[in-house]
Amino acid sequence: MIRHECGLLGIYGHEEAARLTYFGLYAQQHRGQESAGIVTIDEKGLLHEHKGMGLVPDVFAEANLQALPGTIALGHVRYSTTGRSAARNAQPFVAHYKGLDIAIAHNGNLVNTMELREELENDGAIFSTTNDTEVFMHLIVRALRGHDLVDAIREACARVRGAYCLLVYAGGTMVAVRDPYGFHPLALGRLDGAPVLASETCAFDLLEADYERPIQPGEMLIMDGKGERSEQLRGPLPERPRQCIFELVYFARPDSFVFGEQVYQCRKQMGWQLAHESTPDVDFIMPFPDSGVYSAVGFAQCAELPYEHAMIRNHYVGRTFIQPTQSMRNFGVRVKINPVRSMIEGKKICIVDDSIVRGTTMITRVKKLRELGAKEVHIRISCPPVKFPCFYGIDFASRGELIAAKYSLPEITRMLDVDSLHYLSIDGLLRSVMQSDSYCLACFDGKYPVPCRESGKLRLECGGCCGSR
Predict the structure, then answer these.
(1) Where along this sequence does the record place binding of [4Fe-4S] cluster (predicted)?
(2) 42 and 114 together in one domain
(3) What is the pTM of this model?
(4) Of 117, 335, 392, 452, which is the most exposed, with the fewest CB atoms less than 10 Å away?
């Protein structure tokens, strides 16, 4: 499975801040399933926090929410892209500096973390975690020696390279920041007059908040007792944003607006473009739930072929069902997805999926269809071949593990044991979105907007020796 980095939720000036943040994080659970946390600020300016490992409803009970008073809140769900999945790395982070309480939540991935951390440690800084968000905290705290919070954040952001969306609170002020390239999304909404920040707009729908606009690349939205104002980070912005197109391909919920685009419609368009490029002679189109469903809908409509769900997902399977023994090694697959056998035997089938990364999952799926008597199996993928790892917050494998980086299209076709295989072209992908010149395509073409020499999400655990990107 491809994994994302994190989801953010911030509220400034609402009586139900903690509870609303809980539900906003719940709506964004798909963005991070390792840990969850909420920090609130009460009317006296005191910080209250609760965070832990696991899903949002596992971390927070009613008693936890009642112990989080205040009208200001920062929330975070995490999947690790730098640092291990451990309680010490759960966010938001809280620090105390000269009587000032500071909280920070971060979505993204810095590419000069080790360089900055070594510099800070050489200057006496002590780290208690192994992720890049604490580097941000140290940089902000040091910059506070001669600046207010807004200028301190601006100074810190000038030192880092890579992808970041930030929520930072100190001294009655909350600041939302998006990096100059705009790699990952951050949106502004409003509920009962209070500003609400979220990684995805699906959180606003659950809260019944009104979506206003995306935070722009390089923008700082400042919220304090005087109201709201927008400022810019230091220095000129890049000529064009480089937003992560995999948000639209895979990560974001289809009911979200991301980068000003409706995710559902983008995925349907990817299916349309894919059908225009290559439609096989088959009996029907099918997705494997829930991956590729919306692209498959668009593909079937364009190709004027039947759309069927010949594999049924068990939606009641959680993350913690009792693990099978070795003799039941296929149980983990069967318990999640089960075939409608009469729809497969003797049929020519086209699977539409959103991506192939390592290829192991697809090999298993095709093998199952063959065992069930499928006459032909064709695969259509609604994004180009993933040939390069991501440095900016998507936990792609190292290049050595990416099937499209090691093998040609005919070789992958043979490895998967399919009758035909076609990936959507880069041109077809860009025709599926409105802002075709504003996206990062590095995982497809290797053209990285921000160069990176650091490697592996565990690089801070062992001095950078883990992993290879």
Answers:
(1) 244, 390, 440, 443
(2) yes
(3) 0.89
(4) 335
